[in-house]
Design a protein that fits this description.
Layout (H helix, E strand, L loop, with lengths): L2 H17 L5 H7 L6 H13 L3 E2 L8 E2 L1 H9 L9 H12 L4 H16 L2 E5 L8 E10 L2 E8 L4 E7 L5 H15 L4 H11 L8 H16 L6 E4 L15 H8 L2 H8 L7 E5 L11 E9 L4 E10 L4 H21 L1
Helix pairs in contact: 1-3, 2-3, 5-12, 6-12, 7-8, 8-9
């Protein structure tokens, strides 16, 4: 693919995404400074069509990009254009008021759907990607406790447990032991340390301590993988007749958590992946593209987020938005 043909392909993709109409050689020459004659542009379009990068939807119409054409366009984007200062500030402001992990992810999915005008998906981070921040024990009645686990990713797990009568001094001592064993450790590390703790507790804490440790072990071992937040479904209606026959099966596919997880894949933090049309493993979604990125800390990826929309999406803008939101969410969860 020489540079001139690539420029013609870029122009076709840009115009088709913008106008939603097949693109002709005359309009390309009028709108873009390609530096060549209309005849040369027609020859380049004929070559691109022969190689499968563009196609003619019907006789006497202009050309539209194929999945192969979009793939080459995305692969040759080079660097992504950074968001403007105003856009970055808007993202930061939108996320900064979040109260907890659920609120952060709900805000994130709404934000992604708004800025990309696509269907947005955000995966919950798993406990195995987080560090224990604090364990709290709250007395609810003489024979009932509330055990609370707070992690570095903002997750708050809580469980009630029935125990013998207790006093605040006993709870304070047990709280100190539980935090010493877990705080600063990943969930798997905390589980190992909790298992060892049960045999070293003083006799006065044995009965209440065993019950609390068993419950806490369940909490640090439980995974929320597969939990997803989806938003922006009404955005599908913007594509009218293009999706008339596929919207229903698409919506059904998007309701399956396993499908969503596989669609987002295992993108690492700060890396944007794009799956276009036929590259999607699900027949119902092969008229769409998926743009995804991992989010997390500088050393670990917590989970993934992304958007699903028609193959004729604005890839440079969508990719930049997904990357920017993923960075902010990862930073917010790491530092919050």
């Amino acid at each position: 693919m020489d540079d001139r043909k690539l420029e013609v392909l870029r122009a076709i993709v840009t115009d088709f995404v913008s106008s939603q109409e097949p693109v002709g050689s005359r309009s390309l020459v009028e709108r873009h400074d390609l530096g060549v004659s209309p005849a040369t542009v027609r020859n380049d379009m004929a070559a691109l069509e022969e190689e499968g990068y563009i196609t003619q939807p019907h006789t006497s119409a202009g050309r539209i990009p194929t999945d192969k054409g979009y793939r080459l366009f995305v692969d040759r984007l080079g660097s992504l254009k950074p968001l403007s200062t105003a856009e970055q500030r808007a993202i930061q402001t939108f996320l900064s008021g979040a109260l907890d992990l659920d609120d952060i992810l709900l805000r994130t999915v709404r934000l992604l759907a708004q800025v990309t005008q696509q269907v947005a998906i955000v995966e919950y981070p798993t406990l195995s990607h987080s560090v224990v921040r604090h364990v709290e024990i709250v007395s609810m009645s003489p024979s009932r406790l509330l055990l609370i686990l707070i992690t570095s990713t903002g997750r708050i797990e809580q469980r009630a447990l029935e125990i013998p009568e207790h006093d605040e001094e006993t709870l304070a001592e047990l709280r100190a032991h539980l935090n010493a064993a877990t705080v600063g450790n990943t969930s798997p590390q905390a589980a190992v340390r909790l298992s060892k703790l049960s045999s070293t507790l003083p006799p006065s804490l044995q009965m209440i301590g065993q019950a609390a440790i068993a419950t806490l072990l369940e909490m640090v071992s439980s995974e929320a993988s597969g939990r997803m937040v989806v938003g922006g479904m009404p955005n599908l209606t913007r594509y009218g007749s293009e999706f008339e026959t596929t919207v229903k099966p698409m919506l059904e596919a998007l309701e399956e958590q396993v499908v969503l997880l596989k669609l987002l894949g295992e993108a690492s933090a700060d890396q944007v992946t794009v799956r276009i049309g036929q590259e999607n493993p699900y027949k119902e979604l092969q008229s769409t593209s998926v743009v995804a990125s991992g989010y997390g800390s500088q050393v670990d990826t917590f989970a993934t987020l992304g958007v699903i929309g028609p193959t004729r999406m604005d890839y440079p803008s969508t990719m930049a938005s997904v990357r920017a939101v993923a960075r902010y969410v990862g930073r917010f969860l790491s530092e919050g």
